Amino acid sequence: MADPExxxxxxxxxxxxxxxxxxxxxxxxxxxxKPGANGEKSVRYIEGNRDHPVNQGVLCAKGSAGIMQHYSPxxxxxxxxxxxxxxxxxxxxxxxxxxxxxxxxxxxPLKQDxxxxxxxxGRDQSQxxxxxxxxxxxxxxxxxxxxxxSVNMAAAGIYTIGGAFWEFGSPDxxxxxxxxxxxxxxxxxxxxxxxxxxxxxxxxxxFVSVNPVRTGYSAVADNWLGIRPGTxxxxxxxxxxxxxxxxxxxxxxxxxxxxxxxxxxDAPGTADHGMLARDKNGVELVWDAAKKKAVPHTTKGVVPHxxxxxxxxxxxxxxxxxxxxxxxxxxxxxxxxxxxxxxxxAAETIRGLAAEIAKVAFEEEITxxxxxxxxxxxxxxxxxxxxxxxxxMRGISAHSNGFQTCRALHVLQVLIGSIDCPGGFxxxxxxxxxxxxxxxxxxxxxxxxxxxxxxxHLGYPHGPEDLALDKDGHPLRIDKAYTWDAPLSAHGMMHxxxxxxxxxxxxxxxxxxxxxxxxxxxxxxxxxxVIDMLTxxxxxxxxxxxxxxxxxxxxxxxxxxxDLILPDTTYLERHDCISxxxxxxxxxxxxxxSIRWPVVEPNRDxxxxxxxxxxxxxxxxxxxxVNEDGSPRFADYADYIVNHERKPGIGPLAGYRGxxxxxxxxxxxNPNQLERYKxxxxxxxxxxxxxxxxFKHANKAYQDFAxxxxxxxxxxxxxxxxxxxxxxxxxxxxxxxGDIQPPDRLRDRLKLTFNPLPTWYAPFEEERLxxxxxKEFPYHALTQRPAAMYHSWGSQNAWLxxxxxxxxxxxxxxxxxxxxxxxxxxxxxxxxHGKIKVQIARMEAVNDRTMWTWNAIGKRRGAWNLDENAxxxxxxxxxxxLINELLPPKGDGYRWSNSDPITGQAAWYDLRVxxxxxxxxxxxxxxxxxxxxxxxxPTDELRYGLEWTK
Amino acid sequence: xxxxxxxxxxxxxxxIDLDTCVGCHACVINCKEWNTSxxxxxxxxxxxxxxxxxxxxxxxxxxFEVVPDKPKGQGVGEVxxxxxxxxxxxxxxxxxHCEDAPCVTVCPTGASYKRSEDGIVLVDEDKCIGCxxxxxxxxxxxxxxxxxxxxxxxxxxxVDRIYNEExxxxxxxxxxxxxxxxxxxxxxxxxxxxxxxxxxxxxRGGFDLMPEQDNKPVxxxxxxxxxxxxxxxxxxxxxxTEESTEGASGLLGWIDRALSPSSKQKEAN
Lengths: 950, 269
Prior knowledge:
The complex is a heterodimer of chains A (950) and B (269). Chain A has 950 residues and is an alpha/beta fold. Chain A is 24% helix and 18% strand. In chain A, the strands form ten sheets. A seven-stranded mixed sheet of chain A has the order 5-4-25-24-23-6-7, with helices on one face. In chain A, a hairpin with a 4-residue loop joins strand 31 and strand 32 (835-843). In chain A, helix 5 (151-161) packs parallel to helix 13 (402-415) and helix 7 (232-246) runs antiparallel to helix 10 (336-343). Chain B has 269 residues and is of the alpha+beta class. Chain B has a single domain, classed as Alpha-Beta Plaits (2-Layer Sandwich). In chain B, the strands form five sheets. In chain B, strands 10-1-11 form a three-stranded mixed sheet. Chain B is elongated and about 85 Å long. The model of chain B is unreliable at 73-78, 240-244 and 265-269 (pLDDT under 50). The chains are: A alpha/beta (950), B alpha+beta (269).
């Protein structure tokens, strides 16, 4: 019998290219729209765009589930005003005019005291707009979610090498031979890392995973080091110890590109102690052995001395940085045997890791024959590569010792000469950019106490003089970023905003304005406490945080706690720009930026948040958002993207600039810019010249290219800071030097943690709990996102939720055996702060003292329009209930933030717990939060696409 | 009962690399996304926002833990990893388009059939009565009933992509293969010994899933590559120097020698 004849060439419909927003990767996608029976077009298929440099055609589970996100029944339909108590989810729909007027009525009076408005955004990809808006309003209270995500990695990277992982750089996947990944790192950035691991494997390279949990990418690692959480820094310093012992460091590279030869003043008790010696012009000095004198490091032809103490004029002693490092890291306390117990990694494994790194870096060197010229004018015949690359993100960041751990990791890469070389870690333009080329933080107004802020909120302090403190030393920001509690909080401290606003510490605010940040649920530590703060009232019966305005596309938990809802569109219905002014999406060999545009028009009364913000800005008469006659300067976000100029010739998009669209980087606004982007698949790409591809921190061709592109106005080469005297400045202040002085309660902590060389100290929670740590909370607990939901909002998505409908707590077999726990049992997990009841699953491939779960699966009943009995609500849970935003009280009356003491990064992963089998009772996870009202009744059956099938 | 073709001109199928699959579910969802509007009826989901969401899928990933017990060089221990060291295995599974497919021969209506042209096993939904015998007979659990339509669904190897003239030639491959971020999935013709998939199987020791079932699956899996210990073959001791000493002085002495003019001279020679 003949096989049936099949119709195999069905057309897909119209193809529109845009950019995904199912997570933060920013992959290119093709969205196919096809008419149904009624002639109305809907989304037939979403695929990865082959031409797009970020994902080159591939697309992950989230991106492929975009249809279900776009048509989700949790979408909001219209602006809403709260009518029930906060948290109930009872709202009335109102018009946009009413909603915007309400927002203006609350905000207009605050222009006289702008700090009363706190504007915080979550996984916002329009931070260059939102920060500018807050700057024009004049409030110092702005930040996005970096403070509770990975600021330790970003800040440590910028201060050390002028770059960091993810948007700042990536492994040279085509050439690397050894890839070492530390900690939970999969979220950033998911598709490129998967593509990279595939390439590495194909090329026969080795993948080493250092992670307490062996899932996801770690599952295919060649070697897995199941480290104890919070000890990565110690492991890295031990590897450095081994490299020093084996004499496997790249001295030539260190002299050329790092501050290894710079001289550190050794004058204990003086204000200069530990600072780098500098000449009158502020140029750091090195010791010229031939001339026996200190000379600026920029002196042509100088061969700096590295190995002994020298005497500067006025008999000041000084030591080269590298000598200090050799002395420090050669100490026996860093030997593999000495750190094995603390890290849980056998000494021979640590030695093996160091030996592997050394072997690949120095015996498997690769070269690319390409002439290039460095910033000193020296010509090189080739690029020399040390094909060892590394990656880490939130896993090692989210500890109270995270900044120093991240510093250690960047320093390790510098020591083996692998930063921005072939096969190593490569910066993505507009990085590298040294901290000195970034703005400093700003928290005061240009004039007086109203009107625009003097500059961008977030930046990189050079010392105590750049802290956001008033003349009496009080915090200027509601989150207390850039105070002595967290001096280098380069991304702000969003996780402290609600707690501080509720406590009125450092002051009360009037309106909390938030975007895309689920602070009433998975994006807060101490979720129950935050809910109480959002609903707490004062003696007059008024909410302690008087007004909350929130924008979201979906009926998230946070929606129910707001007073006014400004409904956002889905990612297929909006304009956006992935801007070099924000978090770039470049590749190491090319400058890339991109747009989203409404491939589907909204069928609800919703508006893109960025257009709404510009509208609000115009109604409030904010500078830059109105014309001279007071009319709105921009029709909408698309208009802003094309016509806003941050400075002449520099706008949100770098591609197709100039009247005719022929310019990249700099150029006049081009009225057809968005059309040109769409014609090119919604992105622009500008390739680096061949001679500029590596060593960008010191490569003349690259630096000239960067200036041409407008990344900066003069070359900004980076010198890798093995030693950071920015850190030392804060330590000196703690010792009493200088006019700007920390409070006494912080002096010891500053002296301990602001070590100018990478260091390790025990995480604060376990240190603060003292004896209780081992007796009462002997285990660690942490979370990660599952691959199908990395960095996403997708856990209510009809397809994705079938993969992870609930989240068990994975408990190591050793703890299960000790506690009599079996697979599927219910258990109480306790921390010093709280307790939760959860269902457990036994696991082997995990550090034997660490339990873990998938984050953000657990939902509040009724939230996201899921059924009140959805497993996400009844069996899913949040570990957040166990984590406080503050450390255990010390008895000194102060509120000590549970954060990194340098950057203020939320220390989620410091959590210590215990676990006991729960007595038989209802199999429901606890705590139970009362349901929030669902907006609509969802369908009980989906047959998506039926209209196109036969 | 339904007959299998004596032979097929091509043997189209997949190679799935278990050394590279990170279990991200990209293939699972992209498959659903393509096929819910593709060949045959939609892939329905029941109670999609409720207490017991379920649906019909053509491709799923199973995740399990393995603790190899054999020491290195003695079988499974070497293949999967280091003995005693637990690892997680992500195992994607869809129809393997068996040469000797019991799901076809068991079908009472002729709905299940194997194409003589390319060996793809398909369900002719017009003939399917939803009896479920084929799913019972499949050793791999690769078929799923669509509860809304009452017909059996299974992987079609994206038959409406691989021959689809509306698609660019480069895109004429199954959705799961095109979308896989790690490049762990490969599509090709196993009847051609020089095809990409045949070469991969030969080179990496591709294996049949449950060969004892005698279904002759066309799809193959690639095992994890052999592992080696960290630092194997590297010199763990201090570098050989004239006067190797302990601690910082050892390193500093080495640097001095490396940077001394005579050493530079030596290098130049």
